[in-house]
Amino acid sequence: MSEPKKILVAEDDEITRQLMCMTLERQGFQVLTAEDGLQAYDFALIQRPDLIITDVDMPGADGAHFVRRVRDTGELAATPIIVTTGFGTGSATFTLSTGADAYEPKPINPVSLMETVRRLLAQGRGGAAGVDSFDREEF
Question: pLDDT tens, 38-79?
Fold first, then answer.
């Protein structure tokens, strides 16, 4: 049996962070959490996640800064990144221009989030190994 994929969730809002963690864990992912971009970058360097989900507006280093740092770090640069924000498409467009791979609006829709996670993992550096379709009945 293969190791579960590791996903780093960087989100300062506790309720949103818990919702994403619960959604991902129910689908068999190992979830790491951070409350700001600085902590998330440190965790990413140590843990080498298979995918990163980050909020745009966080204390310390915001999501856009975090995405740029990941893209500028050789060993992390290919990691698929999803950005989340409740500020609308202008903020999402800006953050995607920093190098993120996808955008999910807030409030988080668990079905949409899982579809994006699965798609990026299938395309990303780890390939599709261990990435099966998710169970919609869980939602």
Answer: 999 999 999 999 999 999 888 878 888 999 999 999 999 999
- pTM value is 0.86
In angstroms, the CA 65 to CA 19 distance is: 24
CATH assignment of the domain containing 68: 3.40.50.2300
Q: Dig out the tokens for 79 from the structure.
A: 């990691």
Range of the domain at 29: 6-130
Residue 137 bridge partners (DSSP): none
- Is residue 61 included in any domain, yes or no? yes
List, in sequence order, every beta strand (DSSP E) within the chain: 6-10, 30-34, 51-55, 81-85, 102-105
Which of 36, 39, 37, 29 lies closest to 6 in space, CA to CA?
29
